[in-house]
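Appendix B.2, paired examples.
Example (i):
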Amino acid sequence: MSASPTDHPDGRRHTRRSLAARVTILTALAAGATVALVAFGAYLTVRMQLQATLDDSLLERANRAVESGSIEAMTADCSLPTWAVDSADVRIALVDLDREPTVQTCYFSKHQLRLGAPEVGVASGNFDSSIRTIYAGGQPYRVVAVHTSEPGEAFVVAQSLEGQQTVLRKLGIVMLLFGIAGVIGAGLAGWAVARSGLRPVRRLTAEVEEIARTEDLHPIPVEGDDEIARLATAFNQMLAALAASRDRQRQLVADAGHELRTPLTSLRTNLDLLTQSDTPGGASLPVEARIELMDDVRAQIEELTTLIGDLVELARDEPLTHVVEPIDLPEIVDRAIARVRRRAPGLTFDVEMGSWFVVGESAGIERAVTNLFDNAAKWSPEDGNVTVRLVDGTLTVDDEGPGIAEADRPHVFDRFYRSAESRGMSGSGLGLSIVRQVAERHSGTVRVDDAPGGGARLVLWLPGSASPVPDWIPA
């Protein structure tokens, strides 16, 4: 139950206790509050019961004395009957409104009790009796006054509450001791329960710390079906997702390294040839060969630029600020087809398009559409045909490749995903994930299906209208 001081946001310092310490403290506080409430209620109940018992006893004694008919003798010669002897520290007095002084006392010599209006009221006949507490010499007395058979008289009986207070003090001490013992016991029980209940948490913490230290993403053993088991299961799911992400990133690094190595090697070779041809004494290249080398250099630079752009586009969580404007989607499709034709001159594109305008980021949409055509060109045979249809904002691209397996379809738009069939082919598995990212950014959708000819069909839908928006104003 260690604690360490930390800085509070408002500048103060506080102690951060462990969960076991907090459970123990809360259990002890709860037990202490319960014990205090019960003890207070018991104390009040006992006090009220003792008070009521004493009041009943004093009233009974006073009435018996009045009924005995010897009030004058008792107050004159202080002869106490049997009913008065049974109680300790009893005082008696007679209030007679016709005498001087009005109060005739007996055994009031130690502490003179000052009787007042309630007792006089009983003597006057205004009340049958009165009961109250009077303090004399710092000591409390319970005073009972009853009306006698004579007019203008009241018989008063008083008894010290010192004995009752002694009992209550002892009761309070006993309750306090038992309360403290109960709080200590509750604290120990809470500590034991916390240690026993938090043992699975400590095991889970040790497992997580081991994983963090070794980076070995092995699953954590799950025992039972309680909240700790649910936490371990959720953590295992997180570990599985993290392991899959790490595997995809490693595969991406391997694929990107392979994809970058090939154009870089070719680019270096072509540049070396061009440099040697320009060196004095070196073999000169024909004009046609120089032009071909320069075209290869441009193509390789464009390939590198595309790959790096794909990586940058997917690496950032939030897209950069783009220029949003009305876009003629058929025009973008035409530009994308022209670009892909230069890369795959043997392909034939069967294109039918209707008018469609969207509001969005032109470069991103063009990259997404180009990636769809690049994917079709990648899987189609060299002399194959790619069917392109654009109807009401739905762009459908059919290729003549082997199609996409059912098991791969839920993942083809995931980042870094590459199916087993595509491992030996060019590409890094980023193109279709960019298509989905662009579609979602423009509130559109993208899906995969089977083409009528047996290949793959990729369908991109972007919201818009068949006519331009002349009143469009950028936000």
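Example (ii):
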Amino acid sequence: MGEAAARDIANALREALARQQNVRMVFAAAPSQAQMLASLCAAEGIDWTRVAAFHMDEYIGLAPDAPERFAKWLDNNLFDRVPFAQVHHIVPEPDASAAAARYAQLLAAAPIDFVCLGIGVNGHIAFNDPPVADFADPLDVKVVTLDEQCRQQQVDDDCFANFDDVPEQAITLTVPRLIRAGRLFCVVPGQLKRDAVRASLYGPISTECPASILRQHPDCSLYLDAESDPNGQ
């Protein structure tokens, strides 16, 4: 699954770089993305010096050098492994609301070509959990409170030792900001994600399952493994 997704993303990157000077991409930070990112870093024929990178969310309240920060995870798994033109980290300190506004301005400077994302156990995309997801959000980046299922997923994914260690708030790209990207690549492994995938594919398009909005995007590719596939294939 990860290799198949990386192959498609690499092909899309090569095609985009052949027709335009620069590419702008947004990446999710999660163990579910690790295999895809490893394969993407190994892909040949990509001029990363013409690619600008963003990430889609970040915790509020962790120490700047905390290994659990998404920026740090992406540094280790992607940003430090290929020579990007620019890497734009979300830095919540010292004022998270001001940081969200600054990041929105960076994103708005030019179109976002590609987004590499996943789906949470509760159906979230980025940190747009069902209680806070807004398909008509007027903001591009905002501060949100994480719901309990989202926080528990971080423990189940071995990102934190205990539930109480998971921050209660984060900065996230909103649903409309993600959906405006030219092309989406959604990588979703694991049995814990099966119900969320089923709701995304076959349930109502509703903020009760934020990822259901992906069905309205004109160019979104979904990558599943046998465990996450609700049809068991």
